[in-house]
Amino acid sequence: MITGKNYIGKDASAKGNKILKAYDPTDNSVFPEEFVAATSEEVDQAVAKAHGAFNAYKAISYEKRAQFLETIADEIMNLGDALLERASGESGLPVGRFQGERGRTCNQLKMFAGVLRDGSWLDVNIDTAIPDRQPIPKVDLRKMQIPIGPVAVFGASNFPLAFSTAGGDTASALAAGNPVIVKGHEAHLGTNDMVTQAVLRAIEKCDMPDGVFSMVNGGIETGQQLVRHPKIKAVGFTGSLRGGRAIFDLANQRPEPIPVYAEMGSTNPSFLMPEKLAADPEGLATTFANSVALGVGQFCTSPGLLIGIQSSALDQFVETLSGALAEKDSVTMLNSKIAKSYYDHRGIAVEQTGVQVLGDAKDPGENKGKPLTAKVDGESFLNNPQLHEEIFGPFTMVVACKDMSEMLAIANALQGQLTGTLVATESDIKAYPEIANALTNKVGRLLFNGVPTGVEVCHSMQHGGPYPASTDQRTTSVGTAAISRFVRPISYQSWPDSLLPDALKNSNPLGLWRVVNGELTKKELMDQ
Amino acid sequence: MITGKNYIGKDASAKGNKILKAYDPTDNSVFPEEFVAATSEEVDQAVAKAHGAFNAYKAISYEKRAQFLETIADEIMNLGDALLERASGESGLPVGRFQGERGRTCNQLKMFAGVLRDGSWLDVNIDTAIPDRQPIPKVDLRKMQIPIGPVAVFGASNFPLAFSTAGGDTASALAAGNPVIVKGHEAHLGTNDMVTQAVLRAIEKCDMPDGVFSMVNGGIETGQQLVRHPKIKAVGFTGSLRGGRAIFDLANQRPEPIPVYAEMGSTNPSFLMPEKLAADPEGLATTFANSVALGVGQFCTSPGLLIGIQSSALDQFVETLSGALAEKDSVTMLNSKIAKSYYDHRGIAVEQTGVQVLGDAKDPGENKGKPLTAKVDGESFLNNPQLHEEIFGPFTMVVACKDMSEMLAIANALQGQLTGTLVATESDIKAYPEIANALTNKVGRLLFNGVPTGVEVCHSMQHGGPYPASTDQRTTSVGTAAISRFVRPISYQSWPDSLLPDALKNSNPLGLWRVVNGELTKKELMDQ
């Protein structure tokens, strides 16, 4: 079933001689298949096919595009348990986790089908002509969103389904009307191969143009070639700051720069406000310990910073938290690179001035991630940018502030974040409004209690934030608004009704909400 | 009235010793005032004040912000004829032109006041909680747009009012809730000084926080310091490709990259389709001649490329066009730099292979722009990227294609454009749909007949386009949507109703259109 080949549109292709292998992180064993890295020529062919398919694909009706996305979801389900087992085998994550992640992946595809049918993403604005306006006539102008062209997608190792081959970036780019080229993730080559074939079956069934989807295997150079290619018009990426920034820099150095939507993770600070903390330090600590350890800490929303005021309640919180995390098992991480990076970065953090390790900092070996708590005083934290950086894995650091003003200084000194959490009573918020206010300048999602792990896929989700959480804080990589990353507005001036796109026609044949002369309405316009 | 000083918030400041002078381009005479370039320390102070004012300013109600914008417009009107005369004196443009441009500037400010009252720019999405959802509860999420922080604005020489000190960038950034620092344009120092004082009077009258607006005079280094400053969060720019790209590159090389909204002009190709051209070549030529010569061609939407099929109708069009442009007077351009650049770039263009000059290519001297027509065959145009570049001034080039397939090749080979025009009958569009289709991939605004000059300020305007027309094709610098450049989304998760911003409260106190659980509504929510 797994071919190990690249897919240049519908054509399986393996012209290269560089072989990639898939690994099982639980024992570093090697899967039997050989995956052939794409040659530079194959990458060019994939882009040429995507470019060639663009005009045909964008002309296909929104309804047919919606059916295409739904068919991709169906074909992913048709892969059955084999997909879940392979994804588990390549990532160390349990099969049960992939039942959920597959559901999310398919729901995302179906959600964008719904977005296409709803049509509000087209953001239609119409200003009708006033031919006798003085001193000059007013022209008829009608604006809508259109697709931008071929999109390159780089998946994430920690979501081999939901943020990879047919994940949110691919789903939203395809929904918007753009061909997609996926650079297959080296850490789940087989999973990627299977999902690619599911997408291609959907293309066949729905009679979509060849080139609307391609997948190329390879390393950094393959990715760089895609990002540099003049016919690629945007990039979706989920992964490390280092990787995201490299792609961002490359894209901006092009003769024609293109947008890069890189979601690069975050420390997700939680502020333990005095009244709330004092009421139940142990309960809160248990909740956070579970959030830190969830998925071996391999979420971009994992709570890596817990900030409180020095107090007996905080001491109790720290004791319970570190105890609970110490009791958690060591669990296999996604791959050897990520496990090594976890211990390397954690090792640097715990050696910083003022940092105290609360638990066993030994590496248990064999790619296993062992949770760990550390503690640092507010001043040491403030003075040391190293401690502000994300450590990907089940590690959290408690920052003990001497007072509320130091806590505020920390809120103001933080980098951009995907999330920030106020662990607080309503009185806490009212007593210290500056903390919440400072956090609004730093985060994409602001929680009142709860834990940041768990990212709801819906209209109101913002998954993205000020740099370095993402390279474009104006956009989200999760939820319906993700489609807006891959479109741009165009205004039609003085066009005859019959030649306008359906979305802009007087009769409103798509039944859209439209802003007509400043008023939101679904009404049709009288012929002008 | 003109002080020549910088304004660090409300404080006039002139600590530097570098003096700038204002010039009258009609005779290169010098205005008496001395303008003092800001020192590096003063620039830092302006940014520190802007940063300090941010939290206070963003907390001010939308209604008060709207009144502030309206008061700026009032104060600009209060400058009276002195402003129009100064703007005319510094730009060579007639006083009458500034009556119109002042009206547009004030209307833009008032339009954004209306945007603030309407509130649709907040883009509110609410998904309510489902506590008993299986397998995990659904949390309450509410998303809205918030301001991003201090914005640096670089004005344009060709619109000393509407795209400068209190122009569209400043108006939209202030509307969104961001402090603004203007780098005063060196080509209209006095105009900038007067408008700055008008803005400061509005700040005083409306009791806005000190630092919400600053203005610094200076050269390239002053601009670079602003763009590099870690507390500047976005840049608005209108001007040349070279200037815009330099700012874009600088902003993306920062440790924390920031968005740059640079509108950098365009050749604005017009496609003369066969049936339409044959019907009235002379009438069309006269219309285009007037558009090319309008404002001495100093518009980013000036029609610089006219593309037709070789025919007797095209010959007649070219003859009438070149004759009409030859008869136009030489008119003073904005400044000596722009006049020199016009003749330099035009000189390079007309020396290219295949280019034929139709008229008198002499420079009449004294900063005067003389209109000129050139003609080139399609093949020479296709093979020479130099001919695809914008020439700022009253110059246009007719591209004579051998057939429709060459015309299509040209449509596909063009750079990104602010506008594209189809000079066509409906039958032309139906007979050759590929041309319009190719242009949709290249332009921000697509006209059916008419001329591209004239940019309506409204909801449906798209003024921006694929690179190099602008650095961010997803946005517009004209019209209500310009506000979206200076905001970003934030999601509030599980917040008590009483602590939410008004826009997100159950009772919908601002009376906004909101997407609630996927449905667009103005209704209030039942308490959860």
Features:
homodimer, 528 residues, alpha/beta, Aldehyde Dehydrogenase, Chain A, domain 1, Aldehyde Dehydrogenase, Chain A, domain 2, 2 domains, seven-stranded mixed β-sheet, five-stranded mixed β-sheet, 25 strands
Write up this protein:
Two copies of one chain form a homodimer. With 528 residues, chain A is an alpha/beta fold. Chain A has two domains: 7-122 and 148-264 and 476-485, Aldehyde Dehydrogenase, Chain A, domain 1 (3-Layer(aba) Sandwich), CATH 3.40.605; 269-448, 3-Layer(aba) Sandwich (Aldehyde Dehydrogenase, Chain A, domain 2). The first copy, chain A, contains 16 helices and 25 strands. In chain A, the strands form seven sheets. In chain A, strands 17-19-20-15-14-21-22 form a seven-stranded mixed sheet, with helices on both faces. In chain A, strand 1 (6-8) and strand 2 form a beta hairpin. The longest helix of chain A is centred in the N-terminal third of the chain and has 24 residues, at 95-118. The radius of gyration of chain A is 25 Å and the shape is globular.
Proportion in helices of chain A: 25-40%
CATH top level of the largest domain in chain A is: Alpha Beta
Low-confidence stretches of chain A: none
Greatest interface by residues involved? A-B, 74 and 74 residues
Whole-Å distance between the termini of chain A?
Answer: 58 Å
Helix/strand structural class of chain A: alpha/beta
Query: Could you give a short account of the major beta sheet of chain A?
Result: 7 strands, mixed
CATH topology of the largest domain in chain A: Aldehyde Dehydrogenase, Chain A, domain 1
CATH superfamily heading of the largest domain in chain A? Aldehyde Dehydrogenase, Chain A, domain 1
Q: Identify the overall geometry of chain A.
A: globular
Strands of chain A, total number? 25
What CATH architecture of the largest domain in chain A do you see? 3-Layer(aba) Sandwich
Oligomer description: homodimer
How much is the radius of gyration of chain A in Å?
Answer: 25 Å
Number of helices of chain A: 16
What spatial order of strands do you see in the largest sheet of chain A? Answer: 17-19-20-15-14-21-22
Q: Count structural domains of chain A.
A: 2
